[in-house]
Design goal:
The protein is α+β, with helices and mostly antiparallel strands. Helix content is about 30%, strand content about 15%. It is built from six helices and five strands. The chain has a five-stranded mixed β-sheet with strand order 1-2-3-4-5, sandwiched between helices. It is globular, with a radius of gyration of 21 Å.
Length: about 200
């Protein structure tokens, strides 16, 4: 296995192959999170073509089996608040060193074969050389709380390949729903009750 690095990736054949990898990696997660974690195809293509993004691909012979994409200009993504990082990490923001892991995927067949470790070595060493603040997020399926999960894996990988850089918890999002269909049928005087015949 070997790793290649790309930016401004416009080769349609390679783009198709990376999309196939991305889709295969995310499909098992589709029903695990209330949020749509996958990029749409046009967003994926835009991210590959963005010159400031770093794309790392792990290959097994001529097949891509894992990839990571790190945005080095957060103002060119819709995922992070520039104002937040300018206020809380002013030195990193001033240096343009707030970077964001937009995606990190491994084909399910290779998940247990150390693919992330092989990919992480080069990517993390480059980020450390930049003195970056490397931001990442994870759905609850991969990060059930502030400790353990994906964050713990990142901490272990960072320590192994770079050194004991601290992992800082930045925040969390929670999803809630108001279930109006559950209004009591037993209270016909409730003006907000939805008659069964009107439900779809």
């Amino acid at each position: 296995m070997y790793v290649t690095r790309h930016s401004n990736l416009t080769d349609p054949v390679l783009s198709d192959r990376l999309w196939d990898l991305y889709e295969a990696s995310y499909l098992p997660m589709n029903d695990k999170s209330p949020s749509h974690e996958m990029l749409f195809r046009d967003e994926f293509e835009d991210a590959l073509r963005e010159p400031s993004n770093r794309i790392w691909v792990l290959w097994d012979d001529n097949s891509p089996v894992a990839m990571g994409l790190i945005a080095t200009e957060i103002g060119r993504t819709r995922y992070l608040s520039r104002a937040y990082f300018e206020g809380r990490f002013p030195d990193h923001a001033r240096r343009g060193a707030v970077h964001y892991i937009m995606l990190l995927v491994v084909h399910p067949v290779y998940a247990a074969q150390g693919a992330i470790v092989r990919l992480a070595r080069e990517a993390l060493q480059r980020e450390a050389a930049d003195g970056a603040l490397l931001v990442f997020d994870a759905p609850e399926a991969h990060q059930p709380g502030e400790t353990g999960g994906f964050a713990e894996m990142m901490e272990r990988l960072t320590k192994a390949f770079v050194g004991p850089a601290p992992i800082v918890h930045l925040g969390a999002s929670y999803y809630f729903a108001v279930d109006f269909a559950a209004l009591s049928e037993a209270d016909p005087t409730n003006p907000l009750r939805i008659p069964a015949r009107q439900r779809r």
